[in-house]
Amino acid sequence: MIKDMSQDLNNFKEIDISKMKNPITFFGSARLKEDDKYYKMAKNLAKLCVKEGFTIVSGGGGGIMQASNKGAFLGSKELNLDELRSVGFNIYLPFEQRLNDFVGYNMVFDNLAIRKMALIDKSLAFVIFPGGFGTLDEFFEVLTLKQLGFKEVPIFVIGSEFWAKFDDFIKSSLLEAGVISNGDEKLYELSDDLDYVAKNLARIIL
Fold first, then answer.
1. How many beta carbons lie within 10 A of that of residue 44, not counting itself?
2. Beta partners for 44?
3. Global model pTM greater than 0.90
4. Domains (ranges, CATH) in the chain?
5. I need a labelling partner for 3 at 20 to 30 A (CA). Which of 30, 42, 161, 186 fits?
């Protein structure tokens, strides 16, 4: 484990930021298929974001990760960009995880924590799609970093139907119990309007 962490830290330091112009990270489930509505939304939003001047970063696997990388790949092709705006930071797992076919620049990690750091550290914004425990872990880490003032970044959450009870939990349980502060419930924005999300994200690089 120590050896793996040491190598992953070296990999993290060697990330070529020149291949990540205006990076934004998409998080979401690896299990969603191509016919799923959230897969389609992730692909379309990634394409819109590339056209706004962003590089799309994902975990490099399937599901939402593949969708976002595919959208970035297609957007790059449509714009005839010299470099593909599609990045994947993958990880070795016993299941669910292999590098998708739409990543232009990738790095593979052994350690989940360092891989998550790579996904978060350089990104200018985050888009959270429906997902399971891993997505929730990533979402809460980004929220905590923003709450503490370490990352002043936009966080958009896509999937109003999926996230409705989560949003209510934040506002009716955490906020009412006083375990978060007034205003913390506004650290993220819930929207299914992809054009709105892309245009608002574009404001951070104008």
1. 17
2. none
3. yes
4. 2-205 (3.40.50.450)
5. 30
